[in-house]
Amino acid sequence: MNKSLTLANYLREYMKRGVQFFAFSLACLLSASAVAQSGALREVSLPEAIKAALKNDPQFQAALAAREVGAEKEVIARGGLLPTISAAITNYPNSVTESRIPNAAIASQREWAENRYSLATKSITLRQPVIRLRNWAAYLQGKTQAEQASEKLRFDRYEAITRIVEIYANWLTAEKRIASEAAKNTFFTERLKQIQELRLRGQATITDELQAQAELRRSTFELAEARRDLAFLNERFTQIVGAATRPKPFDEELSENLLKSIDSLEALKAKALQKNPEIHALRLSAESARWDIKKFQADHIPVLDFVANYAEENNATAVFLGRETRTTTFGFQLTIPIYQGGVVDASTRQAVAEWRRLQAEVTNAEQRVNNDLARLYASLESAVKLSEFARGQAKFADENLLSTVRQQQLGFKTSIDTLKAQETTTTGEYDRARALSLWTISKIELLALTGDLDYIEENQGQLLK
User: Fold this and answer.
1) I want to staple 83 with a disulfide (CB 3.0 to 4.6 A). Which of 128, 156, 175, 381 is the partner?
2) In the predicted model, what is the mean pLDDT of residues 25-41?
3) Would you give the distance in Å from CA 68 to the centre of its chain?
4) What are the boundaries of each domain within the chain?
5) Do residues 307 and 125 touch, judged by C-beta distance below 8 A?
6) Phi, psi of 303 (to 5 degrees)
């Protein structure tokens, strides 16, 4: 009786696991379907994706607008050095003046007299700054700010390219990961079935089954994670490119470039200090702050302007009806600042403190760039090692799969062994994709840090040059 109950429990457990196996198989099929659907999308190469991203990426479009804002600062500041011409017209056509005048007969009485006339003034004034050191400092600051805006746009462009390349490479890696996790999931599913059958025959223990169940659950979770990552990357790629497309896999020629040598780390650091757009933009920002100091210091210095004025006036009054005058004046106007309540000195001290802060920001950026270069250089070396490992594993996996299939045909190995060999093959492909992705992303970031990313849109082959 106890044996019958135990067998019934085994059968119920077996049916329950069967439902789980069906669910796992369905998940695998859905994953394979997602990969197939992604393969049906139109493929775009890396240069095409970069060009589309620079047109559609809202962050880069905002950077373009910011560059236009900065370019106008030079024009605005130049206006302080150029002459200004202004005209003024005043017209009061119905002016009335009332006055009381003595009566001829009775001197103590006065009568109101009313005069109606018009008042009109026309003038034009030319003012040319002669000595205005603040305006000169503002102009030089405007030029610096315009150059800074251009360098900031270059930095933002590098950032946009780096962002799309990272998504591009990670997309291809995520696709390989799904294939690898799907193969693992299939293997663990079949392996659990095999262990449960062996347990029913008394050739496996409950521990073996529980371990197989745990491995299958973990594999299912990792497969779901891989599908989630690809879905996110696909959405980001579509947003940036502006169309439902998929990245085109890297060709073999690009893969071979993994083994090419690169400059030494010290040479890369020296190049970054000269050409890095972020560092250059921060240096220009500090230079702009230095001109702020000059502007405030100039507020202590007298200002000299050349002024020319021409005016026509029709200034009738109660006494002089219909009087017209013409006045022409020209000469120099000198303004001497005497006391402004300490505003100039306080503003100067504030500008000096801001300049020191920006100088520290430049030093901090230089140190951070050097640290990032060291990290990326190590990542490149790691990618090369991973690529070499993946190449060796790929050769082993291919030979192992062929050998396993032949031995299964001869009856020496089972379908489980073949699934394991297939899983090893897909894992090797995933490792190779990870190596290429790591190298590509690291090299792009390295080119951005050293200021050598300007040619990236020309063709894909120069990516790892």
Assistant:
1) 128
2) 50
3) 17
4) 2-81+132-301+337-464, 83-131+302-336
5) yes
6) -115, 135
